[in-house]
């Protein structure tokens, strides 16, 4: 099994598990969880988001804090990184990608967070 095929870890009774880009929310506002690289890339690209990290957060030569840089949002200065670097770090840390496709009102949602199910 490749890292991209690793199952979602942890207990997520409130979330719908997604294993491919062909799967979608059961209803608007539903929290989804995946480790599937193609699903994550498709979600980001639909929103114009780029894989990013916070400069200076590197750890042992790898990206530190993994984020998405959305167009039109200002805030902390982010460094764009390659999808390969983003996913290598994502897989090494055995993270889950928790996200929404749409808000409850049906508008597109940019909500996501990364979760380490092994963290206490």
TrEMBL record:
Residues 20-35 have a biased composition (Basic and acidic residues). This is 1,4-alpha-glucan branching enzyme. Residues 1-35 are annotated as: Disordered. It comes from the Bacteria.
């Amino acid at each position: 099994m490749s890292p991209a095929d690793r199952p979602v870890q942890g207990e997520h009774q409130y979330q719908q598990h997604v294993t491919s880009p062909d799967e979608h929310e059961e209803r608007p506002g539903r929290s989804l969880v995946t480790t599937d690289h193609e699903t994550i890339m498709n979600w980001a690209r639909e929103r114009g988001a780029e894989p990013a990290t916070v400069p200076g957060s590197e750890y042992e030569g790898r990206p530190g804090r993994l984020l998405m840089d959305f167009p039109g949002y200002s805030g902390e200065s982010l460094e764009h990184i390659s999808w390969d670097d983003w996913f290598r770090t994502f897989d090494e840390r055995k993270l889950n990608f928790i996200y929404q496709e749409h808000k409850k009102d049906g508008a597109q949602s940019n909500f996501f967070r990364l979760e380490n199910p092994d963290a206490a």
